[in-house]
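In the design runs reported in the main text, the only information available to the sequence generator was the tokenized backbone. The following block is the verbatim input for one such run; it is reproduced so that readers can re-run the procedure and compare outputs position by position.
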């Protein structure tokens, strides 16, 4: 089958993707910092994929999105040009081909995460957020949702669904070091407020500070009768979840955060026995077997995943996930590479002083992420101003609260009174603005700066990042 041999070629991408300037890296490979950082730090194994540093750009927003190797993109486009793919709901040959590719992709995803096929299934979505939104169909009625304060807004938003179903909503706090308060969480899990269905939702890795939360919370929560939503969207960028060992009920993720391409695709990996705790609230094309217009009657798809995949899945892109996963497999472990780079940056920033400027680091040392604020004298400057200044100098970094208000509130010591004033002052909902929040919080910062690393980053990026930060500090 031409398509399959072509397809296999796509997977072997790491060697072809040396598009970056070897000159720049040769220079840095010989410098003393790199020697210090090499060896077991392992960056030399992971500098093979394309690196934006080669083009004079420093990309340090890995938690935002991974950088794809060029061959993933080129290979897949070649595949699309050579193969006729049809809507998988039809039954002709192009349709059967698309259906078969999608089936193989489901299997490849389960294999990548070592998920037993008889236990887990893959529901394709447009990303982690729409995977989480599938929990709209969770039977919250009179039950409970327990969230950690460290959660992405895509998970926080589930509390509205839960509330509308009369469920209790509770938050488990985080500590000053941005780790989960283990005693409190243990107590909250042990003493639920409802005997009905209960969902505990937490991220495997914080998208704010890169904090790694213990995956043992999955086992502990399940042993106390909770269903578990483990948000792996940020985690999967540099870590691999082993669903042979950790057994959450729901795992949402986005593939662009893992290997950059394709975008617009994610999935919910779901334990098959969790379907019994879901009730699909509507039907749509693709997710039903029979619908009658004459009579108020429909029969949903029998297969679990099909019941939750509304409309036509992204058949032109889904199979491109396979070479993406194979690409990650070819790299092997990349976490120590990312952590190594982030740790060098952490140490550089911690001691950096220039002009009136200095750095206040919020994240813990030893993550793949450095989250910090810039100070001019005693005052923290607007994080957005730093992002803008860095951007002008070719360094790409993220600023804001990263859709994670719980950690942001902790980092900047926000008080409930601030929000109460903001809320009470507003005549209309749209009178609640970020500017007002800043004003009511007495000028407390409303966001931080996040530098996050992945397989395509090199020590060059850290060097440039530090130099650019020094330059910005000098001009404060
Ligand atoms: C922890 C976490 N959860 C969920 C999401 C949402 O992912 P997406 O925007 O791809 O749907 C993100 C995105 O940054 C994230 O970091």
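Verbatim output:
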């Amino acid at each position: 089958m031409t398509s399959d041999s072509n397809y296999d070629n796509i997977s072997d991408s790491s060697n072809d993707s040396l598009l970056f300037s070897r000159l720049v890296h040769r220079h840095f490979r010989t410098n003393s910092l790199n020697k210090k950082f090499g060896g077991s730090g392992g960056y030399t194994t992971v500098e093979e994929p394309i690196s934006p540093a080669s083009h004079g750009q420093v990309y340090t927003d890995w938690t935002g999105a991974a950088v794809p190797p060029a061959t993933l993109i080129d290979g897949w486009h070649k595949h699309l040009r050579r193969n006729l793919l049809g809507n998988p709901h039809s039954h002709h040959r192009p349709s059967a081909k698309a259906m078969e590719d999608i089936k193989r992709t489901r299997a490849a995803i389960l294999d990548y995460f070592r998920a037993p096929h008889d236990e887990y299934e893959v529901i394709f979505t447009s990303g982690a957020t729409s995977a989480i939104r599938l929990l709209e169909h969770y039977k919250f009625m009179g039950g409970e949702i327990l969230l950690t304060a460290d959660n992405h807004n895509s998970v926080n938003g589930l509390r509205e669904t839960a509330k509308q179903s009369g469920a209790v909503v509770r938050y488990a706090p985080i500590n000053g070091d941005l780790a989960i308060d283990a005693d409190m969480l243990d107590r909250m899990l042990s003493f639920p407020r409802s005997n009905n269905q209960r969902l505990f939702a937490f991220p495997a890795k914080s998208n704010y500070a890169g904090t790694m939360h213990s995956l043992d919370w999955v086992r502990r929560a399940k042993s106390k009768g909770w269903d578990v939503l483990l948000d792996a969207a940020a985690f999967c960028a540099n870590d691999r979840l082993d669903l042979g060992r950790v057994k959450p009920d729901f795992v949402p993720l986005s593939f662009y955060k893992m290997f950059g391409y394709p975008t617009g695709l994610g999935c919910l990996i779901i334990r098959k026995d969790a379907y019994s705790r879901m009730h699909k609230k509507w039907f749509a094309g693709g997710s039903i077997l029979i619908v009658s217009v004459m009579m108020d009657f429909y029969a949903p798809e029998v297969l679990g995943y099909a019941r939750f995949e509304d409309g036509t899945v992204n058949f032109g892109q889904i199979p491109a996930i396979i070479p993406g996963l194979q690409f990650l497999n070819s790299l092997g472990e990349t976490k120590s590479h990312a952590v190594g780079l982030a740790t060098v940056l952490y140490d550089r920033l911690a001691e950096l002083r220039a002009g009136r400027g200095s750095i206040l680091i919020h994240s813990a040392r030893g993550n793949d992420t450095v989250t910090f604020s810039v100070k001019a004298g005693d005052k923290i400057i607007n994080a957005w101003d730093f992002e803008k200044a860095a951007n002008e100098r070719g360094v790409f970094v993220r600023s804001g609260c990263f859709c994670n208000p719980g950690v942001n509130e902790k980092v900047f010591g926000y008080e409930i009174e601030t929000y109460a004033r903001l809320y009470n002052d507003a005549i209309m909902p749209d009178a609640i603005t970020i500017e007002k929040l800043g004003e009511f919080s007495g000028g407390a910062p409303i966001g931080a700066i996040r530098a996050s690393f992945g397989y395509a980053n090199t020590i060059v990026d850290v060097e440039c990042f530090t130099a650019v930060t020094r330059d910005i500090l000098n001009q404060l």
